[in-house]
Design brief:
Elements lengths: L1 E4 L11 E8 L1 H4 L14 E9 L8 E3 L3 E8 L1 E6 L6 E3 L3 E5 L5 E6 L6 E8 L9 E5 L6 E5 L6 E8 L4 E14 L2 E5 L2 E5 L3 E12 L3 E8 L1
Antiparallel strand pairs: 1-17, 2-3, 3-10, 4-9, 5-8, 5-10, 6-7, 6-9, 8-11, 12-13, 13-18, 14-17, 14-18, 15-16, 15-17
Length: 221
């Protein structure tokens, strides 16, 4: 099983963010890919663990040919943009912005006097059609909630807020990111003890939460 921990990555950033780039897929970034980052899985081409500085923002910018998932871990985010303008996201919320055929413009802002913790994932959609779309959901505790992907051939993203003692398994190839908590991951006869802010990739994995944990799980349907 492959793992990538925060200590192996430099702290980068732009505008009002500081982030570690766990996934930068060469299909999307080419020669600009950071050598210490991982390739993605399926449609996933980017995963960043970011801290918004107090009152920091991403600054307004545009995206096309990419769907973006933002998971607010701690703090709040005020969203501005061509979709869902003015919405305030709280810790536990998951925002999904679909590019469709035309793309979208957005700015994410930390309105707080303290830092906001957020994970962001980019996926290359299989179809570039229809209008851009926007939605926000709030995964329930102890449920693997699918926030992206529903058709055969799609890449599915699950958010799993697991209590200590909960277990989940996934046949086939899976990429996971442990945001916080501690988890045992078993692949075949090997068991790995993972700490927070660790990316992992393996086959036919079984996950056991040893403490309250937040995981992002990526696999293909």
């Amino acid at each position: 099983m492959y793992t990538l921990t925060r200590d192996a990555l430099s702290l980068d950033g732009f505008a009002g963010l500081r982030e570690r780039l766990y996934v930068m897929d060469s299909r999307r970034f080419g020669d600009q890919r950071l050598p210490d980052s991982s390739e993605g899985l399926g449609q996933l081409v980017y995963l960043a663990d970011a801290i918004f500085l107090p009152h920091g923002s991403t600054r307004a910018h545009e995206h096309s040919a990419v769907d973006i998932i933002s998971v607010v871990v701690r703090g709040r985010v005020r969203h501005e943009g061509s979709l869902g303008d003015g919405e305030v996201l709280e810790a536990g919320d998951v925002q999904v912005q679909y590019a469709g055929a035309y793309g979208f413009r957005h700015n994410e802002i930390n309105p707080n006097d303290s830092g906001t913790h957020m994970i962001q994932l980019w996926l290359q959609p299989r179809r570039h059609e229809g209008p851009p779309r926007y939605r926000v959901c709030r995964p329930a505790p102890d449920e693997r909630t699918a926030v992206y992907g529903k058709y055969s051939g799609d890449t599915r993203i699950d958010v799993w807020r697991a209590s200590a003692g909960r277990q989940a398994g996934q046949p086939g190839r899976m990429l996971g990111y442990l945001v916080y908590g501690s988890v045992r991951v078993t692949e075949g006869e090997q068991t790995h003890h993972l700490a927070a802010e660790t990316l992992f990739i393996g086959d036919d994995l079984i996950l056991d939460a040893d403490s309250a944990s937040l995981l992002l799980l990526v696999h293909e349907l």
